[in-house]
Amino acid sequence: MLILGFTVFLSLLSVGASAFPPPIVYQAPVTLENIAVRASSQLLLTSATSPTLFTFDPTAVNGTFTAVHTFPNVTSLTGIVEYRPGVFALFASIINATTRRAAPNSTSLWSVDFTAQTPLVREIGALPQIPLANGLTALPGAPDVLLCADSLSGAVWQLDARTGAARVAIEDATMLPDGPPPATGINGLHIRSNYLYFTNSQLGTFSRVALGFKGGKVTAAGAVQRLATVPQIAGKDQQQPDDFALDARGRAWVTVHPGAVTVFSPAANWTQTTVLGNLDGNDTALIHPTAAAFGRGSAAQRETLYVVTAAGQVVALDTSGY
Ligand SMILES: *[C@@H]1O[C@H](CO)[C@@H](O)[C@H](O)[C@H]1NC(C)=O
Ligand SMILES: *[C@@H]1O[C@H](CO)[C@@H](O)[C@H](O)[C@H]1NC(C)=O
Ligand SMILES: *[C@@H]1O[C@H](CO)[C@@H](O)[C@H](O)[C@H]1NC(C)=O
Ligand SMILES: *[C@@H]1O[C@H](CO)[C@@H](O)[C@H](O)[C@H]1NC(C)=O
Ligand SMILES: *[C@@H]1O[C@H](CO)[C@@H](O)[C@H](O)[C@H]1NC(C)=O
Ligand SMILES: *[C@@H]1O[C@H](CO)[C@@H](O)[C@H](O)[C@H]1NC(C)=O
């Protein structure tokens, strides 16, 4: 999540989407925060500055950006994940864009069920305990167990998608923000082969921890391993990893503020290769990328990485050559 200064970015983009070369597939009128992909290939997009969940069909010639649902009394939607086939969970809250803090008691967990004829939206529960619910993921094989990154308290929370019950599952120094708000600690998180992978934006790190699951409780089954640290460039904006997508080879496609998508490869000891934008952050086609996800459906969709940015860009990268 990066919300600061989004209005500046949007005004820079007033020339409109047609002025950009590919791979921008859509220029949304709002900042974009997170992305989930339906089995139908449709993208679900959240915005940290809008209470509306949007959908975009990347397979349509001129896909339209349409509202799915507007959540009451909130300003921001953050993490979103499919936790049962066709059923997604997401966070709704009131977030102050300057302090990047959620207003006390403003955060709640919602479910959006696309298996119904029209999407069925219901509040799962309030999460007054969590100061900044950011990334959200689901524990494979345990349909209603969600894990959430709390960027302010530097913890991973376990959430029950049926009841909204919440408990701290893992706390570690690698998850803490390195300073007071708006410093953001643990941000994106995803599970692969029993490991929880996560970024820490302020520390610039990408780490993992083995997960245990006993008696309904998620725990750390080992020490956190710091896998990689993004390099900083003297005199430039701080490089901050945000959310990411894991591919079939275990590589992480990480969005890095201010303007890059970087692949972290386990086969090469987590060496980093920038594949979109650059570390100078001056590529106007990728302004503050916030999240990435692989398409679903056809083989071509599954090899397409969709990246969203705080400037509202939806970018598609064909990863088949990488
Ligand atoms: C898509 O949009 C472009 C630009 O506005 C337009 O020229 C084209 O006819 C549209 N294509 C379809 C299939 O609607
Ligand atoms: C939204 O907030 C208003 C004012 O506090 C309150 O009256 C209303 O019931 C709330 N709506 C929902 C759906 O929570
Ligand atoms: C956000 O927080 C700042 C600093 O506390 C405050 O000055 C500002 O009024 C807040 N903005 C909103 C919209 O509440
Ligand atoms: C938040 O909720 C808790 C528990 O329900 C309550 O004690 C507290 O007063 C609430 N805080 C605010 C600011 O509403
Ligand atoms: C992998 O990288 C880490 C630090 O980035 C280093 O300490 C370690 O020696 C490297 N391992 C190999 C096998 O190159
Ligand atoms: C981005 O910044 C670098 C370093 O200042 C410069 O070499 C490069 O030409 C810039 N690229 C663009 C597209 O402005």
Global Rg: 18 Å
Q: Report the average pLDDT across residues.
A: 92
Q: In percent, how helical is the residue content?
A: under 10%
Give a short account of the largest sheet.
Answer: 5 strands, antiparallel
Shape verdict: globular
- Helix/strand order: HEEEEEEEEEEEEEEEEEEEEEEEEEHEE
Assign the structural class, choosing from mainly alpha, mainly beta, alpha/beta, alpha+beta, or little secondary structure: mainly beta
Query: What's the tally of helices?
Result: 2
Low-confidence stretches: 3-22
What's the total number of strands? 27
The termini sit apart by: 27 Å
How does this model look, in words?
With 322 residues, the protein is mainly beta. Helices cover 3% and strands 48% of the residues. The protein has two helices and 27 strands. It has helices at residues 6-12, 299-302, and strands at residues 24-27, 34-37, 43-46, 52-56, 65-70, 76-84, 87-93, 95-96, 101-102, 108-113, 120-126, 133-138, 145-150, 155-160, 166-171, 186-192, 195-200, 205-214, 217-220, 225-229, 240-246, 252-257, 260-265, 271-277, 289-294, 304-309, 313-318. Strands 16, 17, 18, 19 and 20 form a five-stranded antiparallel β-sheet that branches. A four-stranded antiparallel β-sheet has the order 1-27-26-25. The chain is globular. The site of one 2-acetamido-2-deoxy-beta-D-glucopyranose has 3 residues, from loops.
List the helices and strands and how they pair.
Elements: H1 6-12, E1 24-27, E2 34-37, E3 43-46, E4 52-56, E5 65-70, E6 76-84, E7 87-93, E8 95-96, E9 101-102, E10 108-113, E11 120-126, E12 133-138, E13 145-150, E14 155-160, E15 166-171, E16 186-192, E17 195-200, E18 205-214, E19 217-220, E20 225-229, E21 240-246, E22 252-257, E23 260-265, E24 271-277, E25 289-294, H2 299-302, E26 304-309, E27 313-318
Antiparallel strand pairs: 1-27, 2-3, 3-4, 4-5, 6-7, 7-10, 8-9, 10-11, 12-13, 13-14, 14-15, 16-17, 17-18, 18-19, 18-20, 21-22, 22-23, 23-24, 25-26, 26-27
